[in-house]
Amino acid sequence: MNERRRAATHVIVDDVTSPVLSDDDHHHLARVLRLRDAEIVSVTDGRGSWRVCAWSDGALRSTTDIVREPARAPLGVAFALCKSDKPEIIVQKLTELGVDRIVPFVSMRSVVRWDADKAERNLERWRKVAREAVMQSRQVFVPTIESVVGSVDDLVRRCGAGLAVAEPGGSVVSDGVSMIAVGPEGGFTDEEIASFDASVALPGGVLRAETAAVVAGALLVARR
User: In terms of pTM, does the model score above 0.90?
Assistant: First the structure.
């Protein structure tokens, strides 16, 4: 991690064996950051492999061996759709923390409800946000951001064992919890809460939806 932190920037490439920048990333390094020859750039494939390169004549020259981080058990946060740019903030911050799986869903009390086209557009945007957050935070794993789940029942069926709901009075996050579901501003209905096999408590008072999602992610990742 120290080598990645010392690098001038961190970028995602298709293959760390022969790293080639996308057009957008090349423009950013050459025209926005204005890197000089010999400046250090770390690269990752977003699947756990990374290495350090040197910027040379507008291209990347590998300077170290490839490092392959060990596989890790995925940790995730599911969040009920919320208004304005809050979902983007949730995706960005969870990615910075190192959450592996992000699942948006619709709750009975969700104010936001999208048609299929809008959901797909937002999903594409979130994946771009996650990619940018990986590069900013020097992560080497790009999280999986899943399509919007239509109900809590569908969420429970999709996520299965290891899923817990964030509710006051819940238990401390234990090793058996690998994903936490955070409800909308109005909270879950009693019927929805009954769908979950486990509940966990988040610290603090009454949290905003986006704050609760980030806190849930921090609690999970802190166990690593």
Answer: yes
